[in-house]
Fold:
Amino acid sequence: MHIVCVCGLGMGSSLILKMTVDKAMKELGQPDHDIEHWDAGTVDSRNADLIVTSQDFESRFAGRDNVIFVTNVVNKEEVKEKLKAYLDSHEVT
Structure:
């Protein structure tokens, strides 16, 4: 699965979120996924199986079913909980 962490410029919070997602995926027993961080504009021109971003971008990605919104990019437990719910509901292994 190709996971992309997104923020406005693709350098600050998306990089932090990428590290948080990586740790959470490993704890969920899912270490073999491609995880990148991009700016919000890049998402429209490239493919991603799952987008993980902050609540600030909720209106930008409204209506997409492959997006997880988090309130705190460093809160591994929140990220892990939301990733698990997504993986379970989409039967991703």
In short: The radius of gyration is 12 Å. The first strand starts at residue 2 and ends at 7. Residues 37 and 67 are 14 Å apart (CA to CA).
